[in-house]
Amino acid sequence: MLKRYAFTLAEVLITLSIIGIVATMTLPSIFQKNHKKSLETAFKKSYANFYNAFNKARINEPPLWDSENLTNAYPELAKAIYAEYKYIKNIKVTDNETYIKNVKTYTLKKGQRPECNQIFRNEGSIITPDGSALSISQNCGTNWVVLDTNGIYKGPNAYGHDLFVFTISKTGVLSPATKESEAAYDEEGNRLPGYNNTPETSNKCSKNSLSNVNGITCSTFALSDTCPDNPSKSYWDCLP
Description:
The structure is a single chain. By secondary structure, this protein is α+β, with helices and mostly antiparallel strands. It has one domain (37-238). Helices cover 33% and strands 12% of the residues. The protein has five helices and six strands, in the order αααβαβββββα. It has helices at 9-60, 62-65, 76-82, 93-102, 219-224; strands at residues 89-90, 125-127, 133-139, 142-148, 163-168, 174-176. It has a six-stranded antiparallel β-sheet. A hairpin with a 5-residue loop joins strand 2 and strand 3 (133-139). It is globular and about 80 Å long.
């Protein structure tokens, strides 16, 4: 007579428990990796589309780009670049205000609006065909380009994650933003001097920064795919 072998109920339960524990330990890291990969893909796509529109505007509007000072050419500069996108949609003022209130820093803490680029100023904010949000504005003597690669309706809406800032110089050179101003105030509303120059706030792209706009200068690192806190790692792998 043949003997039949089978697992006992206890053995099955133990095996399922082990599988559950392993899944609990590994799934969060898998989800996080996929999330960071999606952020990288969105950045590359939206930046490539913007760069294409930027270059087309240079070709199609030569008088504008031959201007001695493009900083004085706003809003014509913004209109020329927006025109290279198809089926753009303006961002509503109320949606913009809600977005600003919920913006986060590089370490995903509550952030603040920078003093100069102003993120999405109402007169220059659009949704592009790829779903990203784009704003071109002028302030502090600089033309600012702001990209939210996921769009304003999808998170995390954080500096250095899906929110990136660039500048267009007066000679028409597109570059990642390397500096930004921010302010801190006391309980009476008086501005605290020297806030931008403290060791904790001078670096605005680091997991160790205490800046209220930490991540606002991360575009350089995202383009070069270099971790700001560890050059041996890629930018997206080291996101907080």
